[in-house]
Specification:
Layout lengths: L2 H21 L3 H11 L2 E7 L2 E7 L4 E5 L5 H7 L14 H11 L5 H8 L6 E6 L1 H9 L9 E5 L7 H8 L4 E6 L11 H7 L10 E4 L5 E2 L4 H19 L4 H8 L1 H16 L1
Parallel strand pairs: 3-4, 4-5, 5-6, 6-7
Antiparallel strand pairs: 1-2, 2-3, 7-8
Helix pairs in contact: 1-2, 1-11, 4-6
């Protein structure tokens, strides 16, 4: 992978990670981040879903908040296939994306994205927020330049993942070792509940604690990934404590790791 491409991807993803972390603190924390970065901000709320927006002179970052209350959990567990935004995608996440898309609060962002001079949009989120962001990117009036997710669960069936890959934006899907959420919904539970098996549309960028990233997957690594998914992560994660999962999956962990990676390019 070209060094310049990797540098731009990491620095873009680092800014998205900072916003992803801020949205969990609500409107005030996004406002504080915007003041620190000398840019404008917007706060969007629709139903049980919310998002923060940073508006720079030449680009825009929008981050969808991940699971934050009991209504979000209900959305996460609605694993039936959707007949809405993208046929066969996770219905709960489609519902979240649809609430944001139809709320009317994105109209200003759409005008900026399509205006002159055009401001490209970087769209993303952590956990369920990343899943919703992927589906929100299907709004043709947003036309994101990149979609960046951290620890996002699976969103697509095999068919809908092929459709999603055909879209033109770049996708950076970050996963940290030990985080079980990117493997959800688990294949074993899909079989038990007679639900479709979900998948990711893009390969993982494996982010390590020291900020290093592995972006290439050989055939044997893909086989190892599938074995790890089913045998090492999926089943034991069902019996792990809530605090263990929260620690491995925390946005603060992703932010700390990617900030170390960004330091190598900022200095």
């Amino acid at each position: 992978m070209a060094p310049d491409y990797l540098r731009n991807a990491i620095l873009t993803s680092y800014m998205q990670a900072k916003l992803c972390s801020a949205v969990y603190g609500g409107r005030c924390e996004v406002a504080e981040l915007a003041a620190e970065l000398h840019c404008h901000f917007r706060w969007i709320e629709a139903g049980s879903n919310c998002a923060g927006v940073l508006i720079f002179d030449d680009h825009i970052h929008l981050s969808v908040c991940g699971t934050n209350d009991r209504y979000d959990w209900m959305q996460n567990f609605d694993t039936k296939p959707s007949h809405g935004m993208l046929l066969g995608a996770h219905r709960g996440f489609c519902h979240g994306a649809e609430e944001l898309r139809t709320s009317g609060q994105l109209s200003e962002i759409r005008r900026m994205v399509s205006g002159f001079p055009r401001r490209p949009l970087i769209l993303g989120g952590h956990s369920a927020g990343g899943a919703i962001a992927q589906l929100l990117s299907l709004d043709s009036r947003l036309s994101p330049r990149e979609v960046v997710t951290f620890g996002s669960p699976k969103v697509f069936t095999d068919t809908s993942s092929v459709v999603y890959k055909a879209y033109p934006w770049e996708c950076f899907r970050f996963v940290m070792p030990g985080d079980p959420v990117p493997y959800m919904p688990f294949d074993i539970l899909a079989a038990i509940r007679k639900r479709p098996r979900y998948a990711h549309a893009e390969p993982a960028w494996v982010l390590r604690e020291d900020g290093s990233i592995r972006t290439n997957e050989t055939n044997w690594l893909r086989v190892a990934f599938n074995v790890w998914n089913f045998g090492v992560v999926s089943i034991p994660a069902l019996f792990r404590s809530k605090s263990w999962i929260a620690g491995k999956h925390a946005m603060s962990r992703y932010l700390a790791a990617i900030s170390k990676g960004a330091e190598k390019y900022e200095n």
